[in-house]
Structures are given as structure tokens and as C-alpha cells.
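Field log, afternoon session.

UNIT: design team B
ACTIVITY: writing a sequence onto a fixed backbone
BACKBONE:
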């Protein structure tokens, strides 16, 4: 019986490129695979003179006791400098109607510094001063605990110092390179 018949996963490159020269680089292969992993969408922000925001889906919880979260930020991103300067960051978890905000904070053409928030509704986080976007599903404020190197990104581990959530239940999701809506009132049937 072959490996495929036994249900053993075959090597990725073989499956993607059954014949001839590989079409995708290994990195593109990873992107393509990770695109199948549905995530929420957040805007990570840092306050202060270098106030800045950036769309990110690399946000995840790490620990409940003590409460810790992380996000991964490209070392080349302006957000990287902003978090190191502020030594803290805020996270706004976007709702289904906030796709334009996600696009805005992923667009390098937005103004630099505090001016990028002029066209956006936000409030400063009470603990960190990080801009927290109005209309989000939930908000987290963190003090920077550790920075780990992760290839061309840094992993920013944060101590959670404040959390808040709204009553909204329609979430913005990112899947297969596009934005989607998840209605939290509709569950997969058992
Ligand atoms: C849905 C989505 C998720 C993203 N997630 C991340 C992320 O987790 N980390 C990251 O560094 N960039 C991420 N990006 C890319 C940044 O948002 C984008 O490169 C941004 O313009 C960088 O901004 P900056 O250089 O002004 O800080 C994401 C983009 C999109 C559209």
C-alpha cells in the first residue's frame, strides 16, 4: 500500500508540483499554506510621539496567568520602531464592518505618525495611551515584556494590562488572502 493510500501526508512540494520544475519558491509555498489558516484581523497601535498603527493577524494569546499575548511584526515595518519606542502596544480586534480600517492600516501610503489617526475614530488606552479604534470587537493593552527574534519579524511578547470588549459579535476574518465575515450568532452544527 502506498503512503497516499495509507493516508500519510505526502511532501508539500510534490503535491503542489506533480510534474516538472517547482512553480513556487518555498516561501510562497508557506504563504499559500498559511493562507488556509483563518485568523481574526487586528490593528496593533503604539502611542506617544511616534504613534503608529498597523494591520496584523499574527496576534495570539500566550498565557492566562500571568495574562500575556504576542504579535509578530516585520523588522522593516515602521510599527517595529514604534513599539520599541513606546515599550507598549494596544490591539483593536476588528469587527465585520471594519474592513476599510484593515486596508487603511496595511497601506504604506497612509500618513506617518499621529496624523494617520486624524481620519479615524479612536480613544487613548488608559494604561498605555495607545490609540484604540472605536467600533472594534475587543481591545487589549500590553506592556512590552520580551522581544524575540523571529527571522525577518520580531515577536513582541506583551504583559496584558487592560482588556475590554463590546457587545458586537460579527467578526472580520482573513482567509485565503481576502477578508470575510464571521457571524458569531451562527455556529457550525454538531
Ligand atoms: C490582513 C493583514 C494582516 C497582516 N498582518 C501582519 C502581521 O501580523 N505582521 C506584520 O508585520 N505585517 C502584517 N501585515 C502587513 C502590514 O499591515 C503592512 O505591511 C503595513 O503597511 C506595515 O506598516 P508600517 O511599515 O507602516 O508599520 C498584514 C497585512 C494584512 C492585510
Amino acid at each position: 500500500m502506498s503512503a497516499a493510500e495509507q493516508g500519510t501526508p505526502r511532501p508539500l512540494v510534490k503535491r503542489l508540483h506533480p510534474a516538472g520544475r517547482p512553480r513556487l519558491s518555498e516561501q510562497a509555498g508557506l504563504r499559500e499554506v498559511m493562507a488556509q489558516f483563518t485568523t481574526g484581523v487586528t490593528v496593533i497601535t503604539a502611542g506617544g510621539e511616534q504613534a503608529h498603527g498597523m494591520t496584523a493577524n499574527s496576534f495570539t494569546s500566550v498565557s492566562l496567568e500571568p495574562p500575556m499575548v504576542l504579535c509578530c511584526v516585520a523588522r522593516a515595518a515602521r510599527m517595529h520602531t514604534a513599539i520599541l519606542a513606546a515599550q507598549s502596544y494596544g490591539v483593536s480586534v476588528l469587527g465585520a464592518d471594519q474592513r476599510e480600517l484593515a486596508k487603511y492600516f496595511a497601506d504604506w501610503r497612509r500618513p506617518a505618525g499621529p496624523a494617520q489617526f486624524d481620519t479615524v475614530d479612536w480613544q487613548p488606552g488608559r494604561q498605555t495611551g495607545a490609540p484604540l479604534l472605536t467600533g472594534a470587537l475587543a481591545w487589549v493593552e500590553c506592556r512590552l515584556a520580551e522581544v524575540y527574534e523571529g527571522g525577518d519579524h520580531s515577536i513582541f511578547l506583551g504583559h496584558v494590562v487592560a482588556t475590554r470588549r463590546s457587545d458586537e459579535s460579527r467578526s472580520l476574518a482573513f482567509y485565503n488572502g481576502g477578508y470575510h465575515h464571521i457571524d458569531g450568532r451562527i455556529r457550525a452544527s454538531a
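LOG NOTE: The pocket of flavin mononucleotide is lined by residues 41, 54-58, 72-74, 77-79, 102, 106, 108, 153, 174 (CB under 6 Å).
NEXT ACTIVITY: expression trials, pending approval
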